[in-house]
Every structure is written in C-alpha cells, then in structure tokens.
Specification:
alpha/beta
Amino acid sequence: MAQRAGAPIGAITRGTTGHNRLRRSDRWLVHSPRVRTALQSSTDPLVVDVGYGALPVTTLELAMRLRWVRADVRVVGLEIEPDRVRIGQAATRNGSAPGVEFALGGFELAGHRPVLVRAFNVLRQYPEEAVAGAWAAMRQGLAPGGLIVDGTCDELGRRCCWVLLDATSVVSLTLACDPFAIERPSDLAERLPKVLIHHNVPGEPVHALLQAADRAWASVAGHGVFGPRVRWRAMLEQLVAEGLPVTPPRRNLRDGVLTVPWSAVAPDSLG
C-alpha cells in the first residue's frame, strides 16, 4: 500500500459524472502506442484516476477497458471528498471489481507511483494559473516512463479534448467527438483543457488549428453523403495534405479523433 504524503492537494469539484462519459478517452488510451508501451513494459501496471467524481463508474470502466492492454492492471480512484471515497469503496466491497480500489487523495497521488494518471474534468474547474502546479505535483509521483492525461468533456461524453504529458513535457493534444454530434470541428473548442481554452483567440496556435479543421471539414463536405465518420477521415487527410502535423489514427474508430503534437498548439506563453 502506498504511503500517505501529507494532506491531499486539490479542491472539491462539482463531481458531475455518468456512465460511459469518458469512453472516447478510454478507447484512445487503449489504442495509443505510447500508452500501451508504458503499461505493457511496466513491472507494476498501476493507474491512478484523480477526481473521479460523485460516482465511481468511470474509474470502474477505465479498469475494465485497460485490461485489454494489461490483464493485471491495477486502478486506484482518488477523491478529496471523503463521502465520494466511501461510495467508491462500497461499490467494490463485494469483490466485483478486482484490481480496483478507492482512496482519499488528490494531485499528490496519495503517495502512489503510477505509470498512468488520468485527471478528467478536474482542472477545468480550476483557474488557469493552477494548472502548472497540479501538473508538477502529479509528475512528481509518476513511475519512470509514466504518463498523464488531463482532459475535459461534455456531460454525455460526445465532445472531448485532452493533453498527454510525460514527466518533463507536454506530448500532444487530442480532440475527439461523436461526428454526428457536431456541426464543425471548432464546436470542440468549448471543451479544450484549461491550459488551452483561454487561448482560443486569433493569433494563437490552437485557434489556427481549429480554423484549419473547419476549412478542411467544409472542403470535404461531399464525403458527408457517406456519413460524418467518413467525412472526418477525409478532413484528416486534407489537413495532412496541407502540411499540418496530424498523427494518423492506427485504425478506423467510431470516434472522430484529431491528435497533433503539443508544439503545434502550445501558447507562446507556455512553449
């Protein structure tokens, strides 16, 4: 068991959650080469879910999905609100979720040394200036080669955005959606992670990316007769043809996914 390292770091958030809300992020994690490598090469495939909310459902779903990558994955859900911890512990008391536990903790990771940390819809509720400190606290607790996912989604999980971090740098930004639930890619701007949402203004790289995606989406409108998923893939091809550093998906997913390196969207103030 991990040793406690002082009081939990963080503030109590609204705790809004729901079944399958984080399914798009979970699917991306399962298929991400870097995440798979981190989990598969670890001697202790421990994952920490920071701020899972009022119900433990998304933590349980994360564990279930990551078992496709490592059957022996362990997942710890952390909350700084004791009643939420008790609800999570009650959900696993009968042994129905082996390898999953719930505990009091925050960005300090409660002394755990995970290879993967997920903090979804948490920093969204903090001021922008709190992001760097939260990232630093989580990075300090990572196991060697560990990764962090910091993201935001809407209430039904149809529009999601997240950044992937390692111990020293921000790696990438991913936009993901149900292509049936948007009119244009820039609809995802409202769910940009806290580190970027206030930088979606003219002259900033993330704004330029969203505008380029909107233009490409419009230019491939003819593909819409085959459905929005086909149109999304055609949009990605158009962006690549224009020279944008879009990471091609490893397989055709039901989700619309757009991933770019952090260098393509980093605000000048952050680098």
